[in-house]
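FAQ
Q: What does a multi-component entry look like?
A: The components come first, one per line:
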Amino acid sequence: MGVHDGYALGKSHTTVGKAAGWHVILPSAMAGSDAETIQAVLDGDVDRFAELVDKYQEHSLKLAFSLLGNYEDAKDVSQEAFINAYRSLAHFRGGAKFATWLYRIVVNECKDVYKWRARQPVVVATVGEPEPELDGACLFVDVEDPAASPRDQLENRELGRQLSTAIGKLPMKQRTAFLLHHVHGLPLEEVASVMRCRLGTVKSHVFRATVHLKEALA
Amino acid sequence: MNLLLWLTRHPLKKPSGIDRAQYTAEVMAKIKALDAPAPAPAPARSWLPWPRLAMTLATVATGILIMLSVRHQAQAPLPQLAESPAASEDQWLEETLLLLDELDEDVSSDTAGDGSEDEWLEELELLDETDLASSS
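Then the predicted structure of the entire assembly, as tokens:
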């Protein structure tokens, strides 16, 4: 078992290495592999599913937020994804990573939200109101750069908003591929696994999304 | 502007206002609600001692009656089956005898023909003569 310094996530922790004269506090989710936890849940220890929720909730939330643009929907979707993952846990094949499988469920849930939104009556936004697609939210952190002038910082913030809006206007597949790869840092192969499409298709989506975003920001 | 470089320097916002422990607790509560067993069915009303005893006695009595009736039926001769063949046999014999009597009368009347006993004797004599002639 490796040492994972800096992990202080969750409410339950496991202390290891006392016998060797040192101890490191690990989140209990890291004390065993995901496969072990999943097996325990399948064997009837339902409470251990909390370890998976605790471990992946931030990733799940961020992915849903980046796809949907607001935290309320993102929270609902990510929680629903965990519940669906629990329901289907017996069908989970160990060949894929749990995270990849969970991301796939999150993406599918987000698609459902999009379909639901598409069926809602269109509300015409008046000038000054936030973008309906992303609720006017900026997806990205405003990095305070002490070396940058106030004008540059303002431009940077504005750029973040424009980029968030432009991402929100991308077609769903392009947006998903772009976000998973460039924002969430998944390798292209894993993106293909999440989206259940071929690697070449993912590359195409990412390329087209990048071109569209550059055009939007030009 | 280098878009991809900008993205590496500006990560996604972290979820704000969401308590991790509360989030996990909410998910687990929903999961446990899925797993909660259905409300137990109402317990079957337990039988009081006296009706149970009465039902048992009635069942035993019914069984004994059925067994006795079956044994009685097996031992007793079946009146219709025992008597009817004899009766029918007698009747059949009687009818047969009557028929035979009628037949005898017919046969005798046929064989008698319209000639007399003398004619019959003459015929016999003729037959004898022809037999003698052929043998000689």
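Q: Is there any commentary attached?
A: Sometimes. For this entry: The first strand of chain A starts at residue 13 and ends at 16.
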